[in-house]
């Protein structure tokens, strides 16, 4: 079996992730609220959801709040991130409905789910076969017709200067903004829209429906093909 690229964050990154993400991802809070509202309309009262890269649990807590009978598989390779998500779930009282998996997606059980969320993961995975393998692993854990909410960085030709200006408006210094931009160039693997559609189709999903786009950070709705 081909394993996906190990995209785990250092454990220490969990300490201030919730603060930093608001200064790194334009439209983050709006995308999260739109993601939650979309699944609230799409799923029945009882459903099983997969969070592929649950991070510190922001989506988990929001979704658990609107689906009081929903069950969750929270997959996250970073011990620090998963610990933060577990603490939030315990505080919110939804921890009994969550199965936590500290591992990469391809190592997690192949239980079928009624929906999946993959937020800010895909652009960290190289397009050398690993990105396709990750998407195939997602599809293998979804029932036919199940929705996938995919939040990913896909600038697709948008000038990076726009993102740099936003970073400065979010509180980064000029040097700090340039450092973030350099990381996107050296460590991130964003896809052009045409390439993304090709990989998603090949891995078993429908064409993505764009729900929102903030300087290349795109929330899309897809479905596992029957």
Automatic annotation (TrEMBL):
InterPro entries: Methyltransf_25, SAM-dependent_MTases_sf. GO terms for biological process: methylation. Keywords: Methyltransferase, S-adenosyl-L-methionine, Transferase. Transmembrane segments: none annotated. Residues 52-145 form the Methyltransferase domain. Pfam families: Methyltransf_25. GO terms for molecular function: methyltransferase activity. Gene3D superfamilies: Vaccinia Virus protein VP39. Coiled coil: none annotated. This is Class I SAM-dependent methyltransferase. It comes from Serratia plymuthica.
């Amino acid at each position: 079996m081909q394993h996906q690229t190990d995209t785990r964050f250092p454990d220490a990154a969990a300490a201030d992730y919730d603060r930093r993400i608001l200064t790194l991802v334009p439209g983050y809070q709006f995308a999260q609220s739109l993601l939650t509202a979309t699944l609230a309309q799409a799923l029945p009262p009882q459903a099983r959801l997969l969070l592929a890269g649950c991070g510190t649990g922001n989506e988990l807590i929001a979704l658990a709040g609107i689906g009081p009978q929903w069950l969750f598989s929270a997959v996250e390779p970073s011990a620090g991130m998963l610990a933060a998500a577990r603490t939030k779930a315990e505080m919110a009282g939804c921890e009994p409905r969550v199965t936590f998996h500290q591992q990469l997606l391809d190592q997690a059980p192949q239980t079928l789910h009624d929906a999946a969320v993959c937020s800010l993961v895909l652009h960290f995975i190289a397009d050398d076969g690993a990105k396709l393998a990750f998407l195939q692993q997602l599809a293998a854990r979804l029932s036919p017709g199940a929705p996938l909410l995919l939040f990913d960085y896909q600038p697709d030709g948008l000038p990076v200067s726009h993102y740099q200006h936003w970073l400065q408006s979010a509180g980064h210094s000029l040097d700090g903004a340039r450092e973030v931009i350099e990381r996107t160039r050296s460590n991130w693997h964003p896809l052009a829209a045409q390439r993304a559609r090709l990989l998603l189709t090949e891995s078993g999903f429908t064409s993505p429906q764009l729900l929102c786009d903030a300087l290349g950070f795109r929330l899309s709705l897809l479905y596992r093909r029957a």
